[in-house]
Amino acid sequence: xxxxxxxxxxxxxxxxxxxxxxxxxxxxxxxxxxxxxxxxxxxxxxxxxxxxxxxxxxxxxxxxxxxxxxxxxxxxxxxxxxxxxxxxxxxxxxxxxxxxxxxxxxxxxxxxxxxxxxxxxxxxxxxxxxxxxxxxxxxxxxxxxxxxxxxxxxxxxxxxxxxxxxxxxxxxxxxxxxxxxxxxxxxxxxxxxxxxxxxxxxxxxxxxxxxxxxxxxxxxxxxxxxxxxxxxxxxxxxxxxxxxxxxxxxxxxxxxxxxxxxxxxxxxxxxxxxxxxxxxxxxxxxx
Length: 287
What we know:
Layout: H1 3-6, E1 14-15, H2 20-30, E2 34-39, E3 42-48, H3 49-54, H4 61-64, E4 66-67, E5 72-73, H5 78-88, E6 92-96, E7 102-107, H6 108-117, H7 125-128, E8 129-130, E9 135-136, H8 141-151, E10 155-159, E11 165-170, H9 171-177, E12 179-188, H10 200-204, E13 208-217, E14 234-235, H11 240-250, E15 254-258, E16 264-269, H12 270-273, H13 275-278
Parallel strand pairs: 1-2, 5-6, 9-10, 14-15
Antiparallel strand pairs: 2-3, 3-4, 6-7, 8-16, 10-11, 12-13, 15-16
Keywords: Amino-acid biosynthesis, CBS domain, Methionine biosynthesis
Domain CBS: 7-63, 65-123, 128-184, 227-283
Pfam families: CBS (PF00571)
């Protein structure tokens, strides 16, 4: 199973110079989690949803992107791709040819699609699931974004006031709800004094600078207004390939895991599920 057979060949990328607004439009329109940044056909960086949310005031792609990204050869195996993604917690890898030119992109979703073809009946159990937490559905969206940033998670289950899972919020949903806000801020560099003397010297030492600020903002509304309410869950004894197929068909990055009483106990993220490829587990895919 090789990268060249599962990678996305029609890659959405941006060229330097470019700006944040262009990338935000791409992520909103396509729902993808990040884009490679190229210069003269060579990959020089990657910009992700996390970069836009964490560097909300930055507009230049060169400062937003992660430079010198890890890349993988078009002739590499899926095991190699999964190992690199798992080790560095990446969700995507630019794929290059022998001339180091961008020819594709291999993502966690592509690896999940490969796992869905395998007959891996091993249960997801604790090997691939992650402990999780939930937020109340009335939590303000900007606070949700900040909590997700601090916790370094891609998605969080949302609960109602009775403790039932009522939805889920992911980075993709935050990006879709965000908007660009332009404002003017003022910085005062005056040499302050305790007296109120209006002299030419005091006026001369007053330095006030006004400058424009453009930020990626989340609206001040409850998370219930942006969350996905049709939540697909899986039991803790679900099979690996079964979950991968469910993720593929529903275009999901994660699945809440519930017990026999339908209570939330963990989360299954695609970045954890692809670990199964690191060991080369499973049988050959159906032809």
